[in-house]
Amino acid sequence: MKQDVDILLVEDNVHDAELAIHVLKKNNLASKLVHLKDGSEAIDFIFGLGSFTDRNVQNVPKVILLDLKMPKVNGIEVLKRLKADDRSMKIPVVIFTSSNEDPDIQACYAFGANSYIIKPVGFDKFVKAVSEVGLYWTILNQQSV
Amino acid sequence: MEEEQRSYNHIGNGRDSGYEEAHLRHLAAIVESSDDSIISRSLDGNIISWNRGSERIYGYSASHAVGKYISFIIPQPYLKEEERILEKISHGENIAPYETIRVGKSGEQIHVSITASPLRDQTGNVIGFSEIARDITSHKESNAAQLQSVNELTLQYEERVKEIQHYKQIIDEFSALAIATIPSYSTPGKEIEEKLHNTFDHMLEGIQIHDFNWRYTYVNDALVSYSQHTKDELLGNTLMDKYPGIENSDLFKVLQRCMNDRVSEHFETEFVFPNGSKADFELSIQPVPAGLFILSINISDRKKAEAKQRTIETHYRSVIEQANDTIYIVDGSASAKFLDINQSGCALLGYTKEEVLQLSVFDIIFENDFGNSASTLEDLKAGRPIRKERKLKRKDGNAIEAELSAKKMEDGNIIVVVRDISDRKKSEMALQKSEQRFRSLIENSKDVISLMDGNFNVFYRSPSAFRITGWTDEEVGMGGVTKHVHQDDLDGVRESMKYLISNPGKSVNTLFRNLHKNGNYVWLEGTAINLLHDDNVKAIIFNFRDISQQKEAEERLKLNEQYYRSIFEQANDMIYIKDGPDPKRFIDINPSGCQMLGYTKEEFLALKPTDLILKEDPKSIPIKLEQLNFGDVVRHERRLRRKDGTVIETEYNGKVLEDGNLIVFARDITARKKAEKEIIALNEDLERKVIERTLELENIIAELRDSEEKFQAAFQSNAAGISITRLSDSNYMDVNDAFVQLTGFSKEELINHNSRELGMIINIDSRNEILNEIRERGFAKNFEMTLRHKSGKEFVILGAVETIVLKGEKAALNILYDITSRKMAEEQLASVNKELEAFSYSVSHDLRAPLRAINGYAQMLTEDYGHQFDAEGKRLVQNITYNATKMGNLIDDLLAFSKLGRKEIQKVTIDLKGMLEEIISEIKKITNCKTSIKIGNLHQVKADYGLIYQVIFNLVSNGVKYSSKNENSTVEISSELNNFETIISVIDNGAGFDMKYADKLFGVFQRLHSQEEFEGTGVGLAIVQRIVAKHSGRVWAEGKINEGAVFRFSLPNY
Predict the structure, then answer these.
(1) How far is A9 from chain B (nearest CA, A)?
(2) What is the 3-state secondary structure (H, E, C) of B297-324?
(3) How far apart are CA B764 and CA B819, in angstroms?
(4) B502-530 residue pLDDT tens
(5) How far does the CA of residue B840 sit from the closest CA of chain A (Å)?
(6) Which of A43, B59, B252, B268 has the greatest number of CB atoms lying within 10 Å of its CB?
(7) B929-964 residue pLDDT tens
């Protein structure tokens, strides 16, 4: 199955997104990266809805980097929908958020998040974290399909 | 009188002369053993019987005496006395003991004390009398001997006095003669001189005449005879020649004075001859014209006599003074005044000697004796010594029975020796009495007397013989003495008979069984005496009596004794015998007693009765002693000490036996006593417990009343709404004011209705749930429920229900707190918390994202355009990154701090040591730590692990941080434990701080050092304080600038 996307980055903060993409590019991981700015777009993208109706939903990303705090549909709701649907439930979802609040972490794991990464405040750590997450999920991790 | 009546029957029974004779013989035999003379006489004085005592005393045999008139033993002067006695007897009078004199066969005087009593015939006529005489000669003799020695002394004294008077007379005569002759000598004429010398020559007295030169001019033969010189040697020689040394003697001085002064002297002197011999002289010295005339009489013999007399006088005096008898001398005149008396006399009469010397004899004589005394005095004056018994009157008026001997002395005075015979009189009276008893005994004897000849043929048996033996005289027959003797006793009887025959005058005691006519044997005991040789008796007298009863009694006694002995020996009770109610010693004890007391019998009998008694117990109980002495059985309880010192309690019965001993039965009741004591103790204990319980009950009642009141008060005035509902129908039984207020219903509206009826229940399920819980568990606690007020408004209560029993019914006590407002506050709080959560979420998210962006872009700037920057450009970008990082840290800490407020602590037991090791390794990982971190003594604490980890981490890393500029920096962690809390200290030797800012140490974002000195956010210690406070502990610090700091926090031990 030909995958037209490796990483789906769902991040409303453009600066965070830019920093992350910057890091991934540096690591040559950003060649097949799609950046969406809110949860509803992410759902549309996965299920071929809205502006993504013509998209082949068979092409699932290798990993979804999902921010939690987003306008309209937040990250947890996106997670719930993805993990509740057979078509998307196997897609690894890495929560990538600024929140280190315990309830959020608990909820994410409860709904099937595969990983929970707190965005480091320090840029060095941020770079490192993003690099490692990208490498791991796109290259090291064995896909289920 | 009765006794006398009987005696007539015996003695005066003239009905049968043989009988009477036998009786007299009987009497004679009985009195045979008496030492006294017992003589019976007819009224005309002729002797009828004469016992052996009489033979002994008077020396005449009975055969000589009987039938004779008594006069042969009475001295002539006393025959009159005998007449008077006979007269008295014939009038039936008894004669009281009197002393008189009898004459024995050999002519000697015998002093006797005699009593006599008449003998009467059946009709009471006096037919004769008996007299009993006791020999008191020896007694009299000793009296007389003493008296005689006094008389002899008196005589000697008198002789000496006579002698002296004789010599005095001679001296006087010769002095007169000398004086008469000497004047004529002064004109000497040869004739006269010769005549004088012739006269002198034959004189018995020594005469010497000296010239003025002391030359002997004349000496007569008498002088020469004791001069120890010859006449020729003396004449012409001087006194000094013949008696050298005389000139120095006192005698010579006198002679010289007489010679020179021409004076005469008359004196006695002792003269020592040149050969040393001595002689006494009476000298008459007379100066004569020719010189000195000396008449000398040798008075040595007289002197000796005088000395002897003085000795005798002293003896005499001492005899008088020391004599037990009274001796006094009275004036021989009619006044009869006392001249002298000895000490015994004073004592006898009760006067002092001085008093006696004022008295006359008549003062010590009773008036009715005056006449006698006067005639006695006459007798004495006539030279007749007298001896009388007389009563003397003592000073105190009492009479003394006295025997007086008196004699006139040469000087006409009378010496009297008095003997107190009161005692003798008394003994005589006693003798008389005993004799009477003796007689009545004979006369009333139930004994049998039988008389036997030498072949033991009975020729007389007293009438009682028939009564005792059952055999008549005829049945006994001749030679029948052994006829009825028991076979086994025959040998003994025969032996006694043999002895009697071969020993005349001897008696033998015998005991044997004799066959009674009725076929039984009776025990006979008796004395037999062989008087065959006695002409008066000529019989073997056998005096016996029936002692069968006594024997039986003895047998019974023996049996009884065996019986009692076996009881004594076998009894389980202790039995012992003491010598009386106030005992000195033990007499017997039975084996049980020994066992009980732990002594052997021998040991016990050696004890003193008091040894058994405990020191603290009384030796005797007076009232019990009285009862004992009264003969009662006395019962009491007594403690006795055993040999081993232990004590047994006994029940103690005592009784005084007939022999005066005390028999004691004692039963060991120690166990019973112990049980009694235990019961008593138990009772006491029970009683005490009852009292305690009663008290307790009273207290409970009081408490109950109290608590009822308290409850009532608590019920009524409680802020909580309280209701009591019956469990069966949930109807209200009682409600308090607060409940009325809470529900809006009045008390009347509530009572006997339930909450459902009243529309208070909103959720019926939750209500039923609680009701079930109450029924199942008996209570329900801390449940919340929403109820409807009478006004329709809803309110929330926090309830507690307890089941109680009220008035016999199960009920529920419901306590309702109105928590409507609290509920509201809680809800508000929850919403605030939510907002806070949202706030902190947004803080963590929304504040951090820009910081990262700042960091990120600064990084990108450096990476992508760094090569275009100069040094200053690079520094500026670096500062951007540093501050952004710093702010990130601040935000992290702030979030951590704010999260603490919401965090629940979960206490676990923490091993601080393990925790600390973990902390140290973490600190060493994140810092370049050179500090030496020491772990001191550490205790376990109960606290939230994560939070305390944070606290200690913060404190230790602070310590490390602030001492990092110090070489040899150290941080030491230790803890100490007291009763309430554990105090953990973290001590460093770092920068320290100024104590005046100590209160700022624990404030949020408060720092005492700049970032340049030590990096930090100022949140670490604030977090420490918050965590410690959440554990109800304390935190504090001490420090000094550059001298290190100590941070301590405490955790409660629970």
Answers:
(1) 16
(2) EECHHHHHHHHHHHHHHHHHHHHHHHCC
(3) 20
(4) 888 888 888 888 888 888 888 888 888 88
(5) 9
(6) A43
(7) 788 889 999 888 989 998 899 899 999 998 988 888
